[in-house]
Amino acid sequence: MPSLRRDLPPLPEVRRITQKKRDAWWTVLLVDPVATPLVRQVALRTRITPNQLTWGAFLLGLASAVCFALGDWRWLVAGAVVYHLSFILDCMDGKVARLTGQGSVFGAWLDFVFDRIRVAVCAVALMAGQYERSGDTTYIWLAAAVIGLDTLRYINSLEIFKIRHSMRKQIKSRLREARRSENQAELAFMEDLLRNNPEADIEQDQRSAAAGQEAPEGGTAARPQAQVIDLHEEFRHRFPAYLRARSFLLRHRIRTHLVSGIEFQMGVFIIGPFLDSVIGATIVSGALLLVFELAIIYKLLLSTRDFTRTIDSFERDDVARAA
Fold first, then answer.
1. Transmembrane stretches, by residue range (predicted)?
2. What residues make up the domain containing 122?
3. CA quadruple 20, 26, 27, 32: dihedral sign
């Protein structure tokens, strides 16, 4: 392990290894520029493990909760700063794991559970401190709302992931059943093609994927043609501006889900305390989170229609072949 740390690649390569292709704008703009150089130094000069960083982030989160509970604006600012430091450490644990190969299933579980506990404790502490300061019972309801919205966000994310995985699995299964020869079309999902190439034109990618690769001069036949499945076709057709915005954001590694759980937390625990406007920041952050979650649900609804049409097309092909 010590030799691994001494032989770590230069910073640009560390960025390539550790930074996600798509991430929250808060992480891309305000965390990665600090966290990535720190990750290299931690991995190069220390024996700190990803799980130890997870514990450090959790303990800093509890420290920020103590600051929030004191209620005064100066303590709110201190709590916001400590919370952001906690989030930086929270981002570093996964990066160190990817860089050093020390990731584990238990570490992922620990990170998720500590994140949820940190949000709940900080929400209670922040709102309790403001209730003590002002006597306004609105803060009690806001504490419950913050915990509820954070839970809703991650439950919804998990369920949508499971549904999308199930749709992909069923499509792949039906394609395998339909294969009759080695030259039968391979399967590619348009969202994967676009993820790898943020500037891609959909129609051009569909033609290129369907055409396959040209065989080199004097070489053997090209690889099998690819059948491109687009489970977001209806959504893209209804909202053409989405593609332009998406391409712009992905060129900068920013995902189109602009207000996710991360931005919601930062609005509540950093922007609100800094502005000494906890109620306003919490309400705005919560409303924006709900808007984006509803947009994702609507996008999923349209995807299920694309999925149904895709399955129906397989069935029509089966009938045509049987005839």
1. 53-71, 139-161, 254-272, 278-301
2. 2-322
3. positive
Q: Which amino acid, 213?
A: Q
Instruction: Check: CB of residue 80 under 8 Å from CB of residue 273.
Output: yes
Q: For the CA atoms of the chain, what is the radius of gyration? A: 24
Q: What angle do CA 137, 143, 145 make, to 5 degrees?
A: 105
What's the sign of the alpha-carbon dihedral 28, 29, 35, 38? Answer: positive
Contact of 300 with 163, CB cutoff 8 Å:
yes
Q: Whats the size of the chain, residue-wise?
A: 323
Task: Give me the CATH number covering residue 225.
Answer: 1.20.120.1760
Instruction: Establish how many alpha carbons lie within 13 A of residue 320's alpha carbon, considering only the half-sphere containing its beta carbon.
Output: 7
User: Count of domains in the chain?
Assistant: 1
